[in-house]
Design goal:
The complex is a heterodimer of chains A (about 290) and B (about 325). Chain A contains eleven helices and no strands. Chain A has about 290 residues and is mostly helical. The longest helix of chain B is centred in the first third of the chain and has 39 residues. The chains are: A mainly alpha (about 290), B mainly alpha (about 325).
């Protein structure tokens, strides 16, 4: 009996050893790649958190920056500015984004819808500074002043493709039977979409909007030539307005250590914002969204 | 897909469709508007400088003559550097995540890489400016000059800030993008393909080599080009670490430089109406056209395999 090889035993030969070696090398190489990526990115995040957290105090949220690196101060004007900018951006980005999603999922068909889907995809790849240039040429130059409005419009355009593609995704997950049931009861198409389909998908759409808001809250480049930034509290959208990423940018290159520390603290706020939004999206869509 | 069809149309339906279509047309109008603003705005510069805009070394407001040769060079060099390192590492990491990684770790690691793709670029810039560049200037670049100084890349004075720092920050920034797209593309490889090779006695690596990679190659290419588009257009992180001083284009990676978008970010503040503004808008037009072309190519490639794969529509 001992002469019969076990049917599942791999035959040992020089060739086989070479193959096993290649397999082992592949595991080691890909593990090293994954390890490198995880370690460097984790290190970067933890480093910023460690540097910034000690300076994330109440004053950071309630006080304005001090001039010339005097002690104390915070980033109130930047936080208020970011909230206002994201608000203006949502006015532009949410309706256009959601209805583009509705169009792609419910209304449009054929090559025109495919073309729109393609455009939305391409729009996500355009560098955000281009939208800043657009708002600059369209609003800032004619008005002869930098303004929160221009910044908000630029951010709003950036929101459109994010909101549109998440909206389309979650709308497609609404069971077809719901639409049929509503239509069978005699509801019109418009009523079915507005009263049945959209509410069914609302959780996913809202989280998509939250994610888009978090994403544009971290944008700097398009705000450089639109909102511009100011160390003073300003709630008038027709005037230059500060934003958290703008203030981080300015303070990072500041000669005063206290401002550099506050830049780290601001970065912590942005990271936490993205973290929260990503987890929110994960939980809200995880329930019914098939993922790889 | 036909969701609603047939039957007599009601006024409310026609109205609803009309409003939806109108909003979609506004989105198209925005894209056309952006192209129009950039083209019409850069027209004076296009007419005055023509092709010399691409080859002229000086972006010189004093003499009112503008060229973006150093910026174009900086953009290409930093992006090429980023891909050179990020592609093998990213694809390798994706292979590990899909095929070798212990099952309980797969989802957390995939989620982590998607999360990092969303970290604002100003944070990478902050780290690059405050940590990476000073380290390069005092430790990294002297070491490279000492040990690899025979290569043209690692010669010249160290500044910390420069092309090398920008390229390294870009490597880190595009890694998550390459990992998550490669991963999603490799997950679309039919299970039967893998099982067939395993049944023939292939090792795990042979399955990847002969079943997964040939199938996923086109999609991975698409992901790489998408990452290229991001590297070419990245503004904040690069602006903060590249030094923003034009030097004669050379292979010295320690030199400071410019990219197309960092020229815009740096110069718009002083821009005066006329040729100056027009030249900045032409730099923007260049970035727009380059990234538009790379994105269209990437999406065509990804669409060829994934069908409706989400990979093609992520924010890049």
């Amino acid at each position: 009996m001992s002469t019969v090889a076990h049917p599942f035993q791999t035959p040992r030969s020089a060739h086989s050893v070479g193959r096993q070696l290649a397999n082992g090398l592949a595991i080691v190489f890909t593990l090293a790649c994954a390890g490198f990526a995880v370690v460097i990115l984790l290190y970067l995040l933890l480093y910023v958190l460690r540097q910034g957290l000690p300076y994330l105090d109440l004053a950071f949220f309630t006080q304005l920056p001090t001039p010339n690196g005097e002690p104390g101060g915070g980033m109130t004007e930047a936080i208020v500015g970011t909230v206002l900018l994201v608000g203006v951006a949502s006015l532009v980005g949410v309706p256009l984004g959601v209805f583009t999603g509705v169009y792609l999922s419910e209304v449009g068909r054929g090559s025109f819808a495919a073309f729109i889907r393609f455009l939305v995809g391409v729009l996500t790849g355009v560098p955000t500074i281009i939208f800043g240039l657009f708002a600059w040429a369209l609003i800032v130059i004619p008005a002869h002043t930098f303004s929160g409005l221009a910044g908000g419009v630029a951010l709003g355009i950036i929101m459109i493709p994010i909101v549109a593609s998440t909206s389309e995704d979650v709308l497609r997950l609404v069971p077809h039977e719901l639409r049929e049931a509503s239509l069978a009861l005699g509801a019109t198409e418009a009523r079915t979409i507005l009263r049945v389909v959209l509410p069914a998908a609302s959780r996913g759409i809202i989280t998509g909007i939250v994610l888009a808001m978090a994403r544009v809250a971290g944008e700097t480049a398009p705000l450089l030539m639109t909102a511009f930034g100011t160390p003073f509290l300003n709630t008038d959208v027709t005037q230059p307005m500060d934003a958290l990423p703008l203030r981080i940018f300015v303070f990072t290159e500041s000669p005063y250590q206290i401002q550099v520390n506050q830049a780290y603290a601001g970065a912590v706020v942005l990271i936490l914002l993205i973290l929260l939004a990503s987890f929110a999206v994960r939980f809200a869509t995880g329930g019914f969204k098939p993922r790889g | 897909m036909k969701r609603f069809g047939g039957g007599p149309r009601r006024i409310s339906d026609v109205l609803f469709r009309g409003v939806t279509l109108l909003l979609v047309l506004i989105v198209i109008g925005l894209i056309v508007g952006i192209a129009w603003v950039l083209i019409s705005g850069s027209w004076p510069s296009l007419r005055t400088f023509g092709w010399s805009f691409l080859t002229n070394q000086a972006f010189d407001p004093v003499h009112n003559t503008y060229g973006v040769a150093p910026a174009l060079f900086g953009t290409l060099v930093t992006s090429a550097f980023a891909l050179l390192f990020a592609v093998p590492i990213g694809v390798g990491a994706a292979i590990f995540l899909v095929d070798f990684c212990p099952r309980p770790l797969r989802m957390p690691l995939a989620f982590f890489s998607e999360l990092l793709a969303a970290v604002p670029s100003v944070i990478f810039g902050l780290w690059g400016f405050l940590v990476l560049a000073p380290w390069l200037g005092t430790v990294g670049e002297p070491w490279l000059r000492q040990h690899l100084g025979f290569l043209p890349f690692f010669q010249g004075a160290s500044h910390g800030l420069g092309l090398l720092a920008a390229g390294m920050v870009l490597v880190i920034m595009v890694l998550p993008l390459i990992i998550s797209i490669s991963r999603e593309v490799m997950l679309t490889v039919p299970r039967t393909q893998r099982e067939a090779l395993l049944a023939l006695g292939a090792t795990r690596w042979e399955v990847i080599r002969h079943a997964v990679l040939p199938f996923a190659r086109v999609g991975i290419m698409g992901g790489i080009i998408l990452a290229l588009g991001r590297a070419l257009g990245e503004t904040m992180a690069v602006t903060m670490v590249i030094g923003n001083q034009a030097t004669q284009p050379s292979w010295h990676l320690f030199d400071t430089g410019y990219t197309l978008s960092s020229v815009i970010a740096n110069q718009f503040g002083e821009a005066t109406p006329g040729l100056f503004i027009s030249a900045l808008l032409e730099a923007g037009l260049l970035v727009f056209v380059i990234t538009l072309l790379t994105n269209i190519l990437a999406r065509v490639l990804i669409a060829r395999i994934g069908g409706t794969s989400r990979a093609g529509r992520r924010r890049s």
